[in-house]
Amino acid sequence: MTSSGGPDRLTNWREREARVFRVLPYGGLVLGTLLALLAPAPKGLGPAPTLAVAVATGCWIAWFVTLHPGWQSRLKLMAVYYAGLLTFAAVLVAASPWYGFFAWVGYIHAFPVLPKRWRIAGVTTTAALVATSQGGGLAIALSHWPLWLVLVLFNLGAAGSVSWFAMVGEQEDAKRQRLMAELGEANRQLTETVRENAGLHAQLLTQAREAGVLDERQRMAREIHDTLAQGLTGIITQLEAAEQTRDRSADWRRHVDNALALARESLTEARRSVRAVRPESLETARLPDALVELGERWSALHGVRAEVSVTGQAHPLHPEVEVTLLRTAQESLANVARHASASRVGLTLSYMGDVVTLDIRDDGVGFTVVEPPAVCQPAGGYGLTVMRQRVTQVGGELAVESEPGGGTAVSASMPALAGSAG
Question: Is this model's pTM higher than 0.85 or not?
């Protein structure tokens, strides 16, 4: 269905105008012929020659314009057609002034078929032919040439004005068509860009989904290590100790109770980890207090003194930072219990403006730090890797210093991002 918009209406108007212009030459030719036959001019051609020239003229127009409309784009061929048209018009005007009704066709055919540099010559010649017919014929025009010249100038002025407006309209039409073509190209490029963006968007969604899955897997791996793995290790340690003290009822009961407490605590933390909830100790206490509680529970389980100290002005930190510091302390103490054979452990939490650090030092057996950092731990465990991942994820750094017989120092440093005071 054709749109009722401006461009379509203009195109339809152009098509109707072209159809009218194709019919008008025949109308002018028929009218001029009828008048020439009914009121022949003196000293003109006879009816038969006049009719023959008129028929030849109609055939000329029909062959070049009506039967072969596609020839209009062939400028050289159309120049031949226009020259023939003016020649026929000149013969007819000389035969009878009534053919002035036909001669003005030279005005409307000059623009679609002639190159721009030849249009003025075509319009001027047509104005001379029309002026000759208006003056009463060739003989009168020659005998009264000043009057004929005035008629030529009048017709040339009128035709020139119309021609100028037509040229302006043609230029505007060409400009409009060029703008429409540019707009179409811009729309095509925009459509292509939208299609490409849609593909990139889908690709980014897929990558984001994959990255989210990977991040969640890494988070669960860390949480499982920090809860289930550490809890199971502690339970195994307590049960092994209970096995060795089965003949001492009090000690056996203490180790079994410790194992049960560790199991319950590990189950609770595992459930909180699945729901991505902060550790319970941070839900009920501030970070320094949670570290003090952690040190006391660890000392009670392993019989090794753990001292916790805080320097600087303590203030609430972002939940991720506090969780990272607490998990780092838990993993470090777990490593001390498994590998260090230490008699003393110190934890220092330092608030230093825009940086917060946690240092864990023990006087145990130590080990040789091996690069890369992912394997800088005894027995090739996973603990230091998890700690490093956690610290790096919040924009911090983890440093490990140790040597055989010289104990171990773990230092986690990260931005002191502020958190809610509630």
Answer: no
**Which ranges of 245-340 does DSSP label H, i.e. alpha helix?**
249-274, 280-284, 287-302, 319-335
**310: Cβ–Cβ under 8 A, 6 or more apart, which residues?**
288, 291, 348, 349, 350, 351
Residue-wise pLDDT for 215-239, tens only, equals 656 656 666 655 666 667 777 776 7
Residues with Cβ within 8 Å of 246's Cβ and at least 6 positions away in sequence, in order, are 252
Question: Distance between CA atoms of 310 and 223, rounded to whole angstroms?
Answer: 26
- Residue of 415, 376, 418, 416 whose CA lies nearest to 396: 415
Rounded to whole angstroms, how far apart are CA atoms 81 and 68? 12
What distance in Å separates the CA atoms of residue 25 and residue 106, rounded to the nearest whole number? 9
Q: Are 129 and 90 in contact (CB under 8 A)?
A: yes
Helix (H) or strand (E) holding 56: helix 47-61
Residue 362 — left, alpha, or beta (φ > 0 → left; ψ -120 to 50 → alpha)? beta
Rounded to an integer, what distance in angstroms lies between the CA atom of residue 231 and that of residue 262? 6
Give the C-alpha separation, 407 to 402, whole Å: 6
pLDDT of residue 379: 42
Which parts of 346-416 fold into alpha helices (H)? Answer: 383-393
Bridge partners of residue 411, in order along the sequence: 359, 399
The tokens 């605590």 sit on which residue? 265
Residue in the block written with tokens 């394997």: 375
Amino acid sitting at position 257: D
Q: Are 273 and 216 in contact (CB under 8 A)?
A: no
CA dist., res. 253 & res. 346, Å (int): 29
Contact 135, 149 (CB under 8 A): no
DSSP per residue, 114-136:
S-HHHHHHHHHHHHHHHHHHHTT
pLDDT digits (tens, 9 = 90+) for 197-211: 888 877 776 776 776
